[in-house]
């Protein structure tokens, strides 16, 4: 990168580059989903994924008066997962939380927590939105389910 660029511009370019890589990963994941290919499983740090996604969303959260609390276990073990798929999952959850918060209030709170539970890693997202309607709970893991207008 050009050494003459201001630090904030370098950081913005870095974010754009990471987002371009994420977009390529999304396209790859759609192809994988369509072809039913196996995900690329590797040791993955969930805290790093969450921190990266929150950094990408920080500006929107700030302008929309959404306060983010994180309680990320620093001793969280790595898990075997597809990094890009987990990143997309967390982005979707956070986008849905932001939309719910804004629908119900003019701002609010999103809390993200990670912790080790027995031999598993638990990632929790809670927000000050209205929650998921009871009739939709059994569909939240359907890949293309939405309550939003398409």
TrEMBL record:
Keywords noted in UniProt: ATP-binding, Kinase, Nucleotide-binding, Transferase, Two-component regulatory system
Keyword Iron assigned: no
InterPro entries linked to this entry: HATPase_C_sf, HATPase_dom, His_kinase_dom, Sig_transdc_His_kin-like_C
GO biological process: phosphorelay signal transduction system
Histidine kinase domain ranges (all copies): 1-150
Gene Ontology molecular function: ATP binding; kinase activity
PANTHER family: C4-DICARBOXYLATE TRANSPORT SENSOR PROTEIN DCTB, SENSOR HISTIDINE KINASE
Protein name: Histidine kinase domain-containing protein
